[in-house]
Amino acid sequence: MDLKLNNKYALVCGSTAGIGKATAISLASEDAKVTLVARNEEKLKQVMAELPNSKNHSYIVADFSNPEELQHKVSEFIKKHHGFHILVNNTGGPAAGPVFSAKLEEFDKAFTQHLKCNHILAQTVVPFMKDEGYGRIINIISTSVKQPLDGLGVSNTIRGAVGNWSKTLANELGQFGITVNNVLPGATATDRLTEIIKNKSAKTGHSEEESANAMKSTVPAKRFARPEELAYAVTFLASECASYINGINLPVDGGRTKCL
Fold first, then answer.
1. Which partner for 38 in 16, 28, 49, 183 could form a disulfide, CB atoms 3.0-4.6 Å apart?
2. Is the CB of residue 252 less than 8 Å from the CB of residue 233?
């Protein structure tokens, strides 16, 4: 299948590790020109060197705790270089814990890093997408928008807000050839999952291996996802081939989510 990304510019957030990095590599492998976004410049340089045809790509150093700075840096990049046909919104999830004991600042921080940053990035890149008659906004969220996950109270809350924001945006932008979709990772072999397993192990007294196996047992596939398996879904949604897929939540979770 020819995904026809050779003339497309992609902005990939949180792209120095995990799903974000895998997505950047996948898009670059399909000949998209990728701009990485993250806060650690050294890690950005390392990922740049790993991308196919590395000279075609670029990066922006920005912190998702500061939406105004993020918007300014992306806007300045666009002025000096080019706009983007593809936006992949992705950033690290909120800390684990029950929702009842969560502090207000935890909600504020998560809302800023996820919904606010997604929103200002969409506002920044959509004018170019409209001019081109082509746009793909893909948000990496969580299966918790379909089925809340125990022990992830703040994440469940904020992910739901992002899901409804993106569905509303899809309805507004579809007429311009712009689609907005969400990819919902299940348990994926990333640093965040390692941290979740460590926390479970500490709380239950079970070993990390036992905790990991218990999580795997809830997945019909009986394993964790590889980051590149999420990246393939994102890459397809970013392509011409997905032009009539809009406003959906796509779980990539090995069948773990119980609802349709």
1. 16
2. yes
CA angle 25, 169, 225 (to 5 degrees): 35
Phi, psi of 222, rounded to the nearest 5 degrees:
60, 35
Four-point Cα dihedral 251, 243, 16, 221, nearest 10:
30
Residue partners of 8: CB distance under 8 A and separation at least 6: 32, 33, 85, 86, 134, 238
What's this model's pTM, rounded to 2 decimal places? 0.95
Spatial contact of 9 and 85, defined as CB atoms under 8 Å apart: yes
pLDDT in tens, 192-209: 888 889 888 888 899 999
Residues 30 and 130 in one domain: yes
What residues does 35 pair with on adjacent strands?
A: 11, 58
- Output b/e per residue, 131-170; b: 16+ Cβ within 10 A: ebebbbbbbbbbbbbbebbeebbbbbbbbbbbbebbbebb
Stretch (H or E) spanning 198:
helix 191-204
| Burial environment of residue 226 by CB neighbours within 10 A (0 to 12, 13 to 18, 19 or more) | middle
Q: 49 is written with which tokens?
A: 């060197």
CA distance 88 to 77: 16
71 and 197 inside one domain: no
